[in-house]
Amino acid sequence: MAEILVLGAGMVGVSTGLALQARGHQVTIVERGTPGRETSYGNAGLIQTEAVEPYAMPLSPGALIQIALGRGYDVRWNIPGLMSQLEAVWTYAKNSLPTAHRRATVTWGKLIRQSTERHAPLIEAAGADNIIRRDGYIEIHRTPAKMAMARIAAQRFLDEFGVEAKLMDGRELRGLEPSIKIEVEGATHWQDAWTCSDPGGLVAAYAALFERHGGRIVNGDAGDLHREGSGWRADDYTGEHAVVALGPWSPMLLVRYGLKVPMVFKRGYHRHYHMTTPPNHPIADFGNSVVLSPMRRGLRIATAAELTSHPRLAPPQLSHGEKAARELFDIGAPVEAEPWTGRRPCMPDMLPVVGRIPDQPTYGPISAMVIRDSPLARSRRKSLLKRWTAARAGRKFHPRG
Ligand SMILES: Cc1cc2nc3c(=O)[nH]c(=O)nc-3n(C[C@H](O)[C@H](O)[C@H](O)COP(=O)(O)OP(=O)(O)OC[C@H]3O[C@@H](n4cnc5c(N)ncnc54)[C@H](O)[C@@H]3O)c2cc1C
Predict the structure, then answer these.
(1) Closest residue to atom 4 of ligand 1, CA basis
(2) Can you give the residue range of the structural domain that contains 239?
(3) Is the minimum distance from the CB of 38 to ligand 1 under 6 angstroms?
(4) For residue 364, what pLDDT is reported?
């Protein structure tokens, strides 16, 4: 049994804490705010098992022109936002090409297929059943052309990955979602996915479970993580091992150890809207780059990716999403005065980073989550090791101050 510090109490940190606890370790989670109030609060609430292919950067000439001209709503950018992550975005683009993407899919697909079965015992033990639905989400297709493409995609997902989906025409869709007020060509019902009506609440419930099982969640700043003896100290707390689970803030900490983590920060926005008769399922309107999720606070309109350093007060992706949502549903006024914003922490090879930092045989900080070995993971570890070793050769290890 070891004493372990987990840095960050988002979904990744809290689930890592629970997993370590289940293996008999004594775990302290260091969180500067409240568990589950950052990225893990703001998402669309989809617990996806069907998304076996990681999200690739759109690379068709049409999509690239749209992105370059700032016309589409899938990926928006500005010059400082793009320049600050150019290398990572470039690698992400290369990894979005078919061969690399297929390689990433092998690992990613295995991980994501487990998501609901891994959540199930935690949801039950945490008593969070009231915020979980187990009847999937609906992807709408507004035009016959989009519906035809959806048929091909559904067949391919079934043949290649065994993922089942129900295709519906407009009439069937209206039966399932009577609050949709316009004619829509059809939809794909991804029935296997689960959805959550309060993603931040789910993390809070897991955090309470972790504490009930004897774990500690302490308020502190993990930004000063440093060596102490043969272990680690963050703020006033010590452990033999440290797990970095700071989401989009992880690279900022690790760079102090000479470890450059090339992350793509995909900013997203959401806002809730009052609604008398919400849809029965989250509705993905990918043609308009938006997901509309019925949440406890109202209908949450969540946007796609923006590569910007600073958030906007009136994000065009959200205004566009709101317009698309108002075409579909009778929606009332916004619940909040301003939209929420956060950054999706994405690695350029579309896989989570997991494992011990290579030349830290016993006490390395690691960036959390679970991953199986793969050629991509191996080559990334090699390059991390190179940078880590080079940086350490010219630098004192203790990085404080
Ligand atoms: C708009 C949007 C929609 C999304 N939709 C989905 C979806 O439907 N399904 C899905 O699976 N994913 C979705 N995601 C992605 C998902 O939300 C993230 O991948 C996930 O929440 C990341 O969790 P995390 O624990 O790594 O990060 P976070 O939740 O950000 O947790 C990091 C924690 O570290 C803490 N922290 C940071 N710095 C310090 C410090 N110095 N000291 C102490 N603590 C610190 C923060 O306070 C925070 O609590 C979406 C993301 C966005 C933005």
Answers:
(1) 43
(2) 3-41+200-263+350-393
(3) yes
(4) 37
Give every strand in the sheet of 226-228, ordered side by side: 226-228, 231-234, 237-239
Our answer on whether the CB atom of 290 is closer than 6 Å to any ligand 1 atom is no
* Residue 209 CA neighbour count, 13 Å, CB half: 23
Per-residue pLDDT, 309? 87
Q: Is the CB of 350 under 6 A from ligand 1?
A: no
300 lines ligand 1 (CB under 6 A): no
Nearest-atom index, ligand 1, CA of 115: 11
> Do 340 and 328 sit in the same domain of this protein?
yes
Q: Is 37 exposed, middle or buried (0-12, 13-18, 19+ CB in 10 A)?
A: middle
Expressed in angstroms and rounded, the spacing between residue 176 Cα and the centre of ligand 1 is 32
Determine which residue's CA is closest to atom 9 belonging to ligand 1: 46
Give the chain's length.
401
Residue 398, in any domain of the structure: no
- Residue 357's pLDDT is 79
Which structure tokens are listed for 304? 């796609």
β-pairing, 75-77 vs 46-47, is: unpaired
| Same-domain pairing of 136 and 278 | yes
136 vs 148, 299, 389, CA distance in Å?
21, 17, 46
pTM reported for the whole predicted model: 0.91
* Per-residue confidence (pLDDT) for residue 382, from 0 to 100: 56
Encoded amino acid at 5, one letter: L
Q: Is the CB of 262 under 6 A from ligand 1?
A: no
Return the best residue to mutate from 7, 18, 43, 108 for the ligand 1 pocket (most ligand atoms within 8 A of CB). Answer: 43
Where residue 381 sits, what CATH number does that domain have?
Answer: 3.50.50.60
- Tell me, what's the pLDDT at 384? 53
- The predicted structure's pLDDT at residue 258: 85
Q: Which of 346, 361, 376 is the last residue of a domain?
A: 346
Please count the structural domains in the chain. 2
pLDDT at 360: 56
Confidence at residue 359, expressed as pLDDT on a 0 to 100 scale: 62
Domain with 70 in it: what CATH number? Answer: 3.30.9.10
Which residues in the chain land under pLDDT 50? Answer: 361-375, 377, 385, 387-401
- Whose Cα sits closest to atom 53 in ligand 1? 268
